[in-house]
Hints:
By secondary structure, the chain is an alpha/beta fold. The protein has two domains: 195 residues, Rossmann fold (3-Layer(aba) Sandwich), CATH 3.40.50.2000; 161 residues, 3-Layer(aba) Sandwich (Rossmann fold), CATH 3.40.50.2000. Helix content is 36%, strand content 14%. The chain is built from 13 helices and 13 strands. It has a seven-stranded parallel beta sheet with strand order 3-2-1-4-5-6-7, with helices on both faces. Helix 3 links the parallel strand 4 and strand 5. The longest helix is centred in the last third of the chain and has 24 residues. The N and C termini lie far apart (45 Å). The structure holds 7,8-dihydrobiopterin (HBI).
Amino acid sequence: MSRWVELDVTPRRILLASTPVGPLGSGIGGGVELTLHNLVYGLGLQGHHVEVVAPAGSLHVGERVHQVKGALQVSSQTQARDAPIEMPSGSVLAAMWSTVSDIQDQFDAVINLAYDWLPLYLTPFMRVPVLHLVSMGSLNDVMDSALADVELELSGRLAAHSMAQANTFPDPAMFRIVGNGIVTERYDLQTRPDAEAALGFVGRISPEKGLEDVAELSARTGRVVRVWGMMQDEAYWHRVAIDHPDARLDYRGFLPTDELQAEIGRCAALVMTPKWVEAFGNVAIEAMATGVPVLTYDRGGPAEIVVDGVTGFVVPADDVDALADAVERIDQIDRAMCRQRVDAEYSSLAMADRVVTWVDEVVDASNAVVDA
Ligand code: HBI
């Protein structure tokens, strides 16, 4: 049931350009897929007209998805910092932006969600304002300079999810910080954990998630840690298990949101031990939406989401002792407060408000230029 929210907003026509690494629904796009779904839902709820351009084979979202055929883009995460930009023959990214160019005049603005060079380079050549919601921290020199070029020529077009993410770039001031959001109606508050009061961990099984620290924590506290996420690096998983024989890690596979939220809600707390700068950390707000406090390292987006002592604890990065202490203080956290903070700050509507404010400022500024 979608309740219409009467807001005195100018209905905008917004085109979202998705990631070229995989079709929507494949999970390959990771957090960007969740961001896109949430934007479509929140902007639609506010009465804006939203369409999407995405690789063929994408799920249907919003009023219309322009499905574009072509060769998927290699992930920027696998590229070396000094790697040149690669464009495969028959590139889906190039074809997506031909479509964006063809239909641009039906929209007030385009919001690009791809972490790629081409959309940045094309920005000044487009008739309609193109805004970029950057989904990761600095990874690659060519991308960094393309972002700087956009800011130089068309200031105000770049946004990031967190200050920590912005700070990974040479000039953090280039970015408007917009946080993120989730469809809170999909998450049920559970006011207390189940009897086992296990800890929870959610994330791709991959070294940058720091599972070895979670295993260390489990061994020290004797707490069971239920682990959900795509088994991306099996060898890594086995190394962690061998190195931590006393850890009690209970791997429960990858679950879709509706089931995952019900499982997370039964935990005493969610543990986040990022070894890289997470741009945001959607799982933190998903856990809090079910009432579950978050124990996180002071690194990346999650450290900006968690209010220390109120919605969880923020401990010095890589300090497992401090995490163990925080586990003893979980009961100090009011689980209803965790949910309240998500409703206020990280709902679809809250995120849509921040994005529409951004779009309005860019559209008004570019109209002013045209009128001048
Ligand atoms: N790589 N080239 C490229 N383009 C993207 O949009 C992209 C990516 N790697 C990962 C990714 N997007 C998302 O999974 C993260 O931003 C969450």
